[in-house]
Design brief:
Rossmann fold, 2 domains, 32% helix, alpha/beta
Amino acid sequence: MRALAEALCSQCNYVEKPKVNCLSLFDGLSAGLFVLLNRLGLDVGNYFSSEIDEDATKVQTFHFFEEITKVGDVRNLSTYHLKKFGAVNLLLAGSPCNDVSRVNPLRKLLYDPDGTGILFFEFIRIRNYLNAAAMEGGYEFFWLFENVTNLDADTLQDMNSFLGCTPIKMIPASSTRERYFWGNVPGMKEKHMDIRVNFVPLQSFLDPGRTAGIDLLGTITTSSSSTKRKGTGCDAVVFQNGEPSELHLTEIEKSLGFPSHFTDVNLPYTRRLKLLGKTWDIDIVQDILEPLCTLFRKKAVLET
């Protein structure tokens, strides 16, 4: 009888938890939805995706046609549209980094209306509206914002000021691609990394018959040069049959936590690489969002 009571109680708790409704800005490959569905097994009520890159939306449609609602350009999401979304529990975003990264000597920073850095303020606008709506409606609202770590001091200070908090630094186990994350997801601050905690060698992601020339993959960007080794006589990071070889896209996909061929939707190498250079590391996002599993309903069967 006690076992039956516990089972019924468990069912009640399952039913009482709400589905998670998510809005993802600058959504790219919908890494957030991939994590929510396939890694955390959460029951997603609505996933609103704001993305204008046609290659990215092509990948989204291929994998998530039934789960995703495309809402277009973030700049066109007015209060009218946001109200129509209803209760949004989770806001995800990583605004373009090109004009705020110190790597770009021609960067236009945050305030230039002709640059992409100013899109940061679209996130702030929408975050503030959704937070106020959640407070008024009495439901949970969490947000997560990502950007590069190589920001100049003034830009970082301004972003911290508008976001209302300082970031955590996350270092992937599979590459040197450090990133900042700001947000209010429970337990985030405890996840900050100053040094790499785990290490997964490049060899573990390589296709059969291939040998890694380095232990740790560098930062994959939108440029094909990011897949090559710098400062050596041979720029290959992978060898096949003893000969230098470029990284396969399937290997990059696996290193980021995606299944092989995730971006294989009839796009050429360079355009697939561009998409992968902009996306999130799946393992890191899973680690940050995992506490949401105690607050939102899980699907009866974890999707694969």
